[in-house]
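## Example record

The block below lists the input lines for one assembly entry, exactly as stored, with component labels intact.
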Amino acid sequence: MNAAVHVGGLVKSFGRARALDGLDLTVKTGEVHGFLGPNGAGKTTTIRILLGQMRADGGQVALLGGDPWRDATELHRRLAYVPGDVTLWPSLTGGEVIDLLGRARGGLDPRQRAELLERFELDPRKKCRTYSKGNRQKVALVAAFASDVELLILDEPTSGLDPLMEAVFNECVLREKRDGRTVLLSSHILSEVETLCDRVSIVRAGRTVESGTLADLRHLTRTSVTAELIGPAPGLATLPGVHNLTVDGARLRCQVDGDALTAVLAELARAGVRTLTTQPPTLEELFLRHYEGAAR
Amino acid sequence: MTGTMTGTGTLIRLILRRDRVLLPVWIVITALLPASIASATTDLYADQAARDSFAAASASNPAQLAMRGPIYDASVGGLTAWTLGSSLALFGGLISILLMIRHTRVEEETGRRELLASGVIGRHAPLAAALAVVLAANLLHGLLSMPALVAGGLPAGSSLLFGLSTAAGGWAFAAVAAITGQLTASSGTARGIAIAIGGLLFALRSLADTGGIGWLAWLTPFGWVRLTKPYAGDQWWVLGLIAVFVTALAAAAFALSTRRDVAGGLIPARPGPAEGTLPGAFGLAARLHRGTLAGFAIGFGALGALLGVAARGLNTQLDTPQFRELAATLGGAEAGLSDVFFTFVMYVLSQLVAGAALVSALRARAEEAAGRAELLLSTPVGRLRWALSHLVFAVMSPVLLLTVLGAVAGLTFDGDVARVTGATLAYLPAVWTVAGIATLMFGLLPRLAAAVSWTALGLFLVVDLLAEFKLATGIILDLSPFMHVPAMLLGGASSPAAPLLGLTVVAITLTAAGLAFLRRRDLMPSA
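Predicted structure tokens for the full assembly:
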């Protein structure tokens, strides 16, 4: 069994609303897996099912080789979770919560705990009631990163962190990966997923719409090309794989399918190129393409 | 001066929208109570002789004096004002505290105020809006109670004064809560301080009326609402005293609110330990419950002491024909008068203990709703273990509180701790049953658990009132678990086993069913 998480055809309804409608998700052991989707796509519901806090209405779920509902307690020894909206006990200090969670997970490394507190610039003596959202998130992150577990489940963990702390977070995730741990990272922040993740699953309206490595997904999308030409390039308009072509005097813009790039560059070279900019597709564009349907 | 009040109107509309059910229900019920009690009084005590003898009995009953104070006039109006004056002040005061904190400190604690404050909302607007709504709601139920009283044949002027005096309790504690809401960053603490002040001021009034230290009653709003003396001389000017009190406290609250940051408190938060030693779910639960439990234990200990001291020498002091008669109907001819008194008071106090048990029993749901359970349950702490860690306190807190109450009362009364504690502990299965209802609902319909459990306890209290005024019999009375508790001090001790065992079985069944449902359902944070 080399999949840390295996979910197939997952269905979950709340009353009449269908939150999950046949969602698939496979996270291989040792990888950092991005779980991408807009708010309300079903990411948190999936994670709650993986944690045994909700029961699926249909489909298969396997977590670390076990059944997350039946074997919850046993499986939780091997994972750490950071919720998207961290709420803590107002009368406890951050340090007390970190130790409570760490102890419950079977103890944490005091050296790592101290190091993480320093890197995240978190004062553990403050009462949780006085922490900002970002600081509450740091408490849960420190407790998770300092635990000795196989799997980290992080639900939009950086939504309250400033860019500096995001960088610290990224380093921590990469270190976890080096140590051979598996990370499931739910997010709608695309740059974060681009930097960290080996593979990505994109969900929309309770279904997985795309799954694969970033390279796989890029293959599916278009590169933006902007060029200033010396002569005209009349053949471009009829080339297959060229989209949204606009010509403004010598300046030209278009989007090009991955497999049509060679032909397009040849055509441009024939006309003569003064300047050329190409941009790889960002995940924003991937997203837009997948959610176009929902918006319509 | 542009601006500190800007947006008050918007916020008032927001509050009215959020409480569109609660406010009308509270106002209507409170407005209807006076007329219904007046008509029940007319039915029960048909002529002046009957009312006089009832008044004489009540005047010599310290429990009644402690709860309701002296009867100023044995007319239908006078008895109605006496029956409801203190209770409505307590009830209105409590609701006003809860509403004020809900719309001031809770808004800040959850960060919603910050969202609003960034819009066009003046610094004083949130407090002003909350005060305006709560004061107006109290005034409204006071005014609305008048027409029905007048229709029932009571004088209009006195009825208006009575209505306004029932509103005054709510006013006073809205003002108290306006201040405590400024003191700490925690809404729980703000609420707790306000309620504690309320308890203290009520105890002061009790002491004034049972201890014969009448002037003490002038120091507390609970005294003032009675000292307006509706239907017994109508001292209108006492309302002015209340108005001064409310104005002064409200002004102080506004002054305090300019001296602190949004979401901050005047009492600064202290740093705590950087490392924790909580050994797991049970350690955490103990930490979460201990403060509340200690507060309750001190409170019930104090009540026990008050009770014991008041009951001392009661056998001679209370030896009036009226009270003898009451004692005989309750406990048989040879029942001791102080025992009757104890039994009477215990019945009421046991329901307060049930309220304390509900707080503990609903704690797990509160943890779940806030999303804190989600984090804890993602660790190897199992769901049942987590629920049990809180349930232990729902089960043990009434044991502790009833023991403290009985032991202190026994000690200060006649030293027979075992006998009095036995009588208080007899209420344990009934209290467990109330906690069992909460646990059942927690498993079955978690979102409604708090509302249903508190409503159930409220209904049991209503059953009491109905029983007291002989407005209900038989099956309705049987619905309240408290009605089944044997009066241990009045001969109930001869065969207490069956009802106590029965209630215990009911409590265990409710609790077990709740836990079984909990294991099967989804976790439901409120967001």
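Chain B touches chain A at residues 109, 185-186, 188, 269-281, 283-284, 287-288, 291, 370-372, 374-383, 520, 522-523, 527 (CB under 8 Å). The mean pLDDT of chain B is 86.
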